[in-house]
Amino acid sequence: MKKNDFYYFLRKGILSVLRESKIKFCLFITGFLLITASSYSQIGPVIWEDNFNTFNTSQWTKDIGDGCNIGLCGWGNQELQSYEANNVYIGDVPGEAGNKALVLEAKNQVSGSRVFTSGKINSDNKVAIHYGMVEVRVRVPNLNQGLWPAVWMLGTSNLAWPAKGEIDMMEMGFSQAARNEQGATSSTVNTYVGANTFFPVPGGVGNIASDVNYNKPYVAAAPLNDRFVKYRIYWEPTQIRFTVVDGANEYDLYENPFPIDANNSVTAPFTRPFYMLLNLAVGGTLPGVSSNGAVTAPLPGKMYVDYVRVHKWNGYGSVALSDGTIPAENGTFGVFTDTTPTTKKLTFGSDSEFYIFGETLIENNAIAPAEGANVLSFTNDSSKGWFGAGITTLFGKNMSSYTANGSLKFKIKIPANVSFFIGVNDNYTNAAQVNFPAGQTKYGLVRNGEWGQVTIPISDLGGLVAFQDMSYMFRIGNDGAIPTSNFQFAIDDIVWVDGNTTVCQPTAITPYYAINGQNWTSNTTVSLQSGNSITFGPQPTTGGSWSWTGPNNFAATTREITISNIQSNQAGNYTATFTNACGTTTNVTFNVTVTTVSTFVPDPNKTYYIANPFHNKRIGANGSEDPFSAAITTTGSTVEWKFTAAPNNSYYIDCVGGQGNPRLRSDNTDFTDMQPSSYAGTWERWQITPAGNGKFYLTTLESNLRRLQLNSAGVLKQVGTDSQDTWEQFTFTEASQTPPPPPVGSCTRVAANGDFNVTITNNSEGSFLTFVPNRTGIGNTTLILYYSTALNATYPGYLAQPNVPFKINATSGQTIYFYYTYSLPTGGENNTANDKMNFVMGSCNASTSRMANEMGKNENVLNALYSVYPNPVTNEATIEMQSAGLFENIVIMNSTGQIILKEKCNNQQKITINTADFHSGIYFVQLSGKNGISNCKIVKQ
């Protein structure tokens, strides 16, 4: 049930749009991270419910009228009814003796200019839900055609729609055209049900249902009217999953849960509380009925709501009950401040937001803070002719205690020739402001262009402002004309002070932390590496009590806390709250970032080179007891190593290909040697410890935790673990990898860059794509599949997993074009949009499009420009071109698509390739350049 009929549909696919979006949050730019499903899933106990045995006015309000009284005629959706109190009541459930339910009844009944009446309730300012599994048991009447039942939610923030967010748990009554657009052409109005979310996007409103490849409305085998069905959302800080429970089966209403993130402007509204609405509309945009005569549904029609329940879900979920009043604040209230002691303070993104009006200001880092670490610093855009910005509360603040003796204080640095005003707003459209003329000293501000302190009595901001429910706690804008050239200004340390000396004043907190037991640092920004230990020890040390909150439901009640072996999932804000002897609280937030240090878990089925980048040496063995070293570019089986799991998270390190497969050991001396793996002595166990930057220490457990060394002469020995020289760090490079064989009857596409293969399989359920990495770690963190039936289109994105088949939603015979975005083991990501692959649904064929045919014709021409000989080959293959410069690159791949060799042509006419180390079999040679791409086969004997 939308509050506006202007929809901004996400044509690019919801996942790709969310992934590309950015948030302008305070002074930081943060990208949206795709979130995968929780590692555990658990429905917890009921934390709130209404079984509608009576109508509870302390929890629900009846909406009255047709919306015109609030300037939203037809409730923003061209609805035809007027909501009336008598159309909402508690009634007996048909066929369920002794059970009662909420009844919302639509009638042929005149009310004002409307010829229909119906019922609607909401829990605004009474019941607010924040996360959890929300379940509603609903029975709808015959909807055909014109009735529009809905179970939905709106954000409790005082922001306008869609900035507050909307969650539609259930909507029915869709027009045939709307159902056709979703591909449900055989559905009826009584068998089709959908869900949705609405949110702000640049230039309009976004929703997820418009992406037909992502949306998955439920089409029931039997009509859903006149029987009960359950509708659910599973809501947690990273995602919302929509389902319908029909009988014994539960069906998802989207291909994947909707990902949300508090640090993303698009989805941040869904990380805040929502209130619920239940209604049965007559006509409107969704059913496509805009005139009274087009309503054909039998009336009266009754929508029954048996219950609303909220469970804990994965440990998340809370419900706040309110009488609609906002408790009064007192003391020193922080709007934007770091070090000033405050009774309470606003937090951007949580209970407040900072807005720039009309893009008239550009945030910068040109002016240092007046206090603390943060500042609101700007450059104006003089071409706009004005400027404005403000800090609003999301849920309203009661500042009535400040009207008598209170003041608004802040620091500002602004050119003396700029006239500006400072204002406030309430949540009833009232505003007040005071002006600061250019060059005039006012409220303590000396107009010299430097930082100045301003103190404005709240009484000067009085008038009609309702201080018991404030929205904008601070607002700044130009007062009259602005200078013709751009200027810079900054604001800091914004607080409200109530002026009541009897109020318990807050105690200032000094932040301290120590990393790995080292010296204390007084700061709130903490940068760690995974595995570090962090101790927080804020002061004062006496005179009150402490409490802590943090990520993953972290909580503590001591002043000093220690987190050992910290990992990336423990990053975030750790807030310490100090309650002093007279009962006032002060808090400090430590922002903790954790950089993941590269880890290495060797695959027992693969072999590796062990190299030392500092000395450009690679460890080898000659099959005797003497290890040797070689240049880091050396290849060959005698310098490949295999890791075999040993006790205590350690490994035996075996040489592959050496005589007797010798094993790396020390014989309890400072020097490292080799013995055959059949040797009966005590074997050395090696632990692999991250050293940072993709390098690792090798530490032996048998010799008092001594670390393996490789010096410039290539000598291997061991030293104590307290030695931290750079030359004791190693890298591990995979020497070979055999990808799993593709399923029988499948076919394979090979990525142009050799990072992965794609296996295409077909069965009775449809066609599937499986991403098969050719290097360890490819796609482990992020893997997104983009596909479409049109080559030149915007491709929707879908979360995928390496080596897990992904089902393609298309019709047999259609050509599917696809590419991937995937994470790299060294950090960062690759995108193969410029090297799209394709296949035909239901087969392994490539596209038969004219483009493909033309490419084939072109390839025949290219093949005539060069020759490869001898073929079959033994130790060398020669590639000879008709003239130099015809091609630029040569790539050789084995039969599984793994790249064996990549080489530049360097304007040579004849190139010789060493094939001595190639295993027997078929290889593919690919030549590419400005003339195109050509492929041929060679056979190694």
Strand content: 35-45%
Number of strands: 71
Helix content: under 10%
Content-based structural category: mainly beta
Give the domain tally. Answer: 6
Residue stretches low in confidence (pLDDT < 50, at least 5 long) are 1-40, 847-860
CATH class of the largest domain: Mainly Beta
Mean pLDDT: 84
Q: Which overall shape is indicated by the principal axes computed on the Cα atoms?
A: globular
Which value, in Å, is the CA radius of gyration?
Answer: 34 Å
CATH architectural designation of the largest domain: Sandwich
CATH topology of the largest domain: Jelly Rolls
Distance between the termini: 70 Å
Please report the number of helical segments. Answer: 3
Main β sheet profile: 11 strands, mixed
In short, what is this structure?
With 941 residues, the chain is mostly beta strands. The protein has three helices and 71 strands. It folds into six domains: 14-34 and 48-321, Jelly Rolls (Sandwich); 332-497, Galactose-binding lectin (Jelly Rolls, Sandwich), CATH 2.60.120.430; 513-595, Immunoglobulin-like, CATH 2.60.40.10; 608-734, Trefoil (Acidic Fibroblast Growth Factor, subunit A); 747-848, Immunoglobulin-like; 864-940, Sandwich (Immunoglobulin-like), CATH 2.60.40.3080.
